[in-house]
Amino acid sequence: MAAARRLKLAHILVVLLASGLALLAWTQTWVNAVVAQSGTARQSLEVTGATASPALTALAMAGIALAGALTIAGPVIRVILGLLEVLLGFSVFLAAFLAVGDPAAASAGAITKVTGVSGKESVLDGVVSAALTPWPYLALLAGVLMAAIGVSLLVTARRWPGPTTRYQAVRFAPAGSPGVTDAAALGDDADTEHDAVDDWDGLSRGEDPTAQR
Q1: Is 146 exposed, middle or buried (0-12, 13-18, 19+ CB in 10 A)?
Q2: Contact 45, 33 (CB under 8 A)
Q3: What's the average model confidence in pLDDT over 105-109?
Q4: CATH architecture, range 2-159
Q5: Is this prediction's pTM over 0.85?
Q6: Where are the domains of the chain?
Q7: Cβ-based burial of 34 (10 A; exposed 0-12, middle 13-18, buried ≥19)
Q8: What are the Cα distances from residue 23, in Å, to 15, 38, 130?
Q9: What pLDDT digit, counting tens, does each position of 13-61 carry?
Q10: Burial zone of 116 (CB within 10 Å; 0-12 exposed, 13-18 middle, 19+ buried)
């Protein structure tokens, strides 16, 4: 049981780690671009992952939410979450790969914002250079790690310990059982005490309690 708990904890931590790496990479500079439109001086731009790969943040946050769901999921739900984690990993990898494959195109949004030039061909014509930083490669690694831990989830889902019940269910004992007898006895004692109080109050008012029985 202890080994199963460690296995569960390790998988959840790796899911969190991979998602955190993707989110960290998204916040950093991915491309250092130099732009020179006709009639203007060269401009240097730092293009972050938010511009180069805007979908990455939603994918990373989904991975973090998935880690939370794993803490309470049963065997069947773990399999579904494992498939979802594989899909998230593939999506993160693809989002980063597109930016790595064409850094100039990934910088188009930032270039348009600075220069006011729109249209893919017009924007790309003004790009003098577009150098990648290590951060998009970290996003690629995060995608691979997410997909790999998703596969591991599928393989080991049945070996995890199940969710524990924090409270025990109420047990109804049949009539005549010791628990019920004790409860009835307590109820009789309470009624007897209540009658004694009423009798005492009646005597205080000058009433005969035996006349009421």
Answers
A1: buried
A2: yes
A3: 83
A4: Up-down Bundle (1.20)
A5: no
A6: 2-159, 178-212
A7: middle
A8: 12, 36, 22
A9: 999 999 999 999 999 999 998 887 665 677 888 889 998 999 999 999 9
A10: exposed
